[in-house]
Amino acid sequence: MRSNRAPWYFYVIIIVGSVMMVFPFLDMIFSSFKSASEYALLNYTLLPKQFIFDNYRMAVEQLQLLLLFKNSLIRSISITLLVLFTSSLAGYVLAKLRFPGKQVVFRFILSTMMFPAFLFFIPNYFITVHFPLVGGNDILGQGGEGGLAASVLGLIVPFSVSGFGIFLMRQFMISIEDAYLEAARIDGAKELRIFFQIVLPMTAPALATLAIFEFINSWNEFIWALLMNSVNSELATLPVGIQMLKSALDPTLTQPLVMAGLVIATIPILLLFIFLQKYYVRGMMNAGLK
């Protein structure tokens, strides 16, 4: 009888791949406890000779970590919630409602995914800075001191809609049986009630998957946050602050501090993944089955 067990070398490949993926993360953690002189040694060791916890205190002071952490958290949570709302609502409309031009609209949304995101940064920057009636601007978007870019809205609004999110939610909602929706309509339920009470609870795995993607992308995004920081330095996020620290000071002296800041910056992402892991795995499995 043929065994269903995988060959032994499959396990070897998985173990080696896992070690290669985990090693940089472990190096970051242990380097955050090293002194600057030990980090600069050519004779590399993974474990520090002496654990220096003072790096975390200095990272908080040098990086203004509380401000950076607050800006990153506000930005990432706001973008994630907005994307979940806009993507699920648009996905429901494109998956379950009928209207002229629906396929044209869907293809247009798909086409936005084919362009690199940085192509839209400069146009979005000018739109944000010259947004009418915001930040001191007049009706023509002139005369102000930064428009939306002068407030935290500049970090959030340009990313409130995601073409990938709409595509993901639309594909997931197509699999929902129309019989549930028709039964609710016969009982007199309106579309918004059907959306919030029937469709959304059934798409929890897809919502969790999209939430993880969007939160990580927003948390790690650098270029747009750097542009907003050039307008208002109070809007700096963790990636911008860490990069500015590396550029301003001697790398041989600040690298352990940077590693400590990166460890702190990684904690929210790990907590989010641990909290939503079962929904994420279920969403990936359902996507694979489809």
UniProtKB/TrEMBL annotation:
- An example Gene Ontology cellular component term from the record? plasma membrane
Mind listing the UniProt keywords for this protein, alphabetically?
Cell membrane, Membrane, Transmembrane, Transmembrane helix, Transport
- Which residue ranges does UniProt annotate as crossing the membrane? 7-26, 73-95, 104-127, 147-168, 194-216, 257-276
Highest taxon of the lineage? Bacteria
Location(s) in or outside the cell: Cell membrane
Major location, coarse class?
membrane
Q: Where would I find the ABC transmembrane type-1 domain in this sequence?
A: 69-276
A Pfam family the protein falls into: BPD_transp_1
The protein, known as: Carbohydrate ABC transporter permease
- Recorded source organism is Cohnella nanjingensis
